[in-house]
Amino acid sequence: MAAIQEYKCPCCGGAIAFDSTIQKMKCPYCDTEFEMETLASYDSELRDEQTDDMNWQMDSGNEWQEDELGTLNAYVCQSCGGEITCDENTAATSCPFCGNPVVLTGRVSGTLKPDYVIPFKLDKNAAKDALKRHYMGKRFLPKIFKDQNHIDEVKGIYVPFWLFDTDADVNMRYKATKVRCWSDNTYNYTETKYYSVSRGGQIQFESVPVDGSVKMPDDLMESIEPFNCSEAVDFQTAYLAGYLADKYDVNSDQSVERANERIRKSTEDAFYDTVKGYSSVTKEASSIQLQNGKVSYALFPVWILNTTWNGGNYLFAMNGQTGKMVGDLPLDKAAYRKWLFGLTGIIGLGLFALYSLICLL
């Protein structure tokens, strides 16, 4: 017994059938009519569509050389478990993540050597000045915070990042509408036309960064982006002198999901922006095929500032290349409530005035 193919309406999703009166396919739900050739072409396109294939085939990282290992020490934090790499001249220090003392445990081993490093361009004083500027213009920041907030420690640290390169073959399909409204002396009319819009092409990604440290919140690290990867240089241990380097605890395989998420969003945004001239546009299907995947291991410069105020700890981070500063700030609840009350009053007054105007008409 042959299978019966059921056609779905591209406009509303309802089942459509052949109408012998008009000799066309017709949707009984939205009354949209379709030529047989149009449906056949649409059905063929759906069968040929591919789902996303964002699997990576890649090799990454180099091993440390014996002469390089001899100049590096590894420290471990007994509180948060963070492992930090530094040059041989660094004495006992404190953890840049939680502030507790760290203990020398021996030489670096069992990790990949970074491929690239972006050297620090801004010093500790620049980080302190950037924090002061970060306070400016914050209307709900407690007024005494910037005077009493105490900087406990400022640490320059190289944060591990995985950099993903890939080419993507992309096909996207959207459901779009055009709406036209008009009226006469009797009725108001609305005409809605439905379209199936396809987009296809290639897009190349270079150095999509994914934070390789569990201890560094992803949102914090992504907030101080972008880093200018054109200024990255081949890694040498000399760049670590005077700074700390966080040891990655998220490997490249574990970072693929986050890389795919960033690549997918950027791809969908780029192709969506090409669909113009419609009243509404909704993505229906996507096919993203990755090719020539490559991953590199790099160290990016970050200044970490640990501060305390009113019994609370506040963490700030500054891009050591560009100077972009981010971090959480306390909220002056009294000032916020006052502002919210004033805003509510303005909105209420506006609604009352509108209601009064309608009543007078």
Residue windows where pLDDT falls under 50 for at least 5 positions: none
Give the proportion of residues in helices.
10-25%
Task: Please report the number of helical segments.
Answer: 7
Strand content: 35-45%
* Gyration radius, in Å: 29 Å
Q: How would a crystallographer describe the biggest sheet?
A: 11 strands, mixed
Count of distinct strands: 17
The string of secondary-structure elements, in order, is EEEEHEHEEEEEHHEEHEEHEEEH
Number of domains: 2
What structural category arises from helix and sheet content?
A: alpha+beta
| Mean of all residue-level pLDDT scores | 77
Question: What would you call the shape?
Answer: elongated
How far the N terminus sits from the C terminus, by CA atoms, comes to: 69 Å
Task: Give a structural overview.
With 361 residues, the protein is α+β, with helices and mostly antiparallel strands. Helices cover 24% and strands 39% of the residues. It has helices at residues 36-48, 66-69, 124-135, 145-148, 218-223, 252-272, 333-360, and strands spanning 7-8, 15-19, 24-26, 33-34, 62-63, 72-77, 83-87, 102-107, 112-113, 116-117, 150-183, 188-211, 233-234, 244-246, 280-309, 312-319, 325-327. The strands form three sheets. Strands 6, 7, 8, 10, 11, 12, 13, 14, 15, 16 and 17 form an eleven-stranded mixed beta sheet that branches. It has a four-stranded antiparallel beta sheet with strand order 1-2-3-4. The chain is elongated, with a radius of gyration of 29 Å.
